[in-house]
Description:
Rossmann fold; single chain; Arc Repressor Mutant, subunit A; 5-stranded parallel β-sheet; DNA-binding transcription factor activity; 2 domains; glycolysis; alpha/beta
Amino acid sequence: MDMDETSTEVQSVDELMQRITEAYDSLPRQLKSVATYIEQHRSSVMMDRTSDIAGACDVHASAVVRFAQRFGFSGFSDLQAVFRQAYAGGSGSQQSYQQRIRKLIDEKAGEASGVSVAREFIAASRTGLDELEAGLDDEQFEAAVEMLSQAENIYVIGVRRSFALASYIVYALQHTCKRVHLVSGFGGMFREQIRSVKKGDVVVVISFAPYGKETQYCVRAAQHHGAKTLVITDSQLSPLARHANASLFVKEGSAFAFRSLTSTICLCQALFIALAYRLQLNVEESKETGGYDD
């Protein structure tokens, strides 16, 4: 039996995904396919049949079982139980806003005041910020700033809940000397808005599971035309991150099954400020060498 060498019981989805990420490069091709499927279908994997996952990954059902055993589970149903515990009862991302509010009302049984709800959500956001600071990859952040500073054009894409974040980045970057474009998709024109991207440009992508198909298309288009990509996402297994030129990872705090945007907006603001600082330094250096007109 191909059991994982570690026998420590997995306690959460995040812990499991971290183990999968660390082992991903060493996995056989078939198990890599299963890993990618699980990453992209976190909220539904608890209900999927082994045969359905095998079919989607173009592998034999036994490969799905071997995948679970690789990470210390006796079978795939045991792995599914980790997701079931995390997402069952309404905490899955696919649950409607109305259902999540209904769950909150049922859990609080009329005891929650508006202030107590606010404080709990603020506390969750604060936890997310602490995790962002602790997990910030200095090397990747510096690479992102350098890449943006060298870009001829900067395209920014984010859909659904990420759209507000993409809009903010565009607003902030327009205070620099850079040419910045929001790939809004208005009128369904994602393809038309990204078609002019070229070598020397940077595409900034903001996307979280389950990763919008529009965003994935824009990343493929950028890579096809030789542009660089900066991805802000939630996992190293994200289909957007694995081939990006730079990746920044952020896990939002959540309360009442609602995920905050606090950590991501903080990361975006930090990225803008660091870039603006770098660009101004470049201007100052040009002045000192006589290459900038007074």
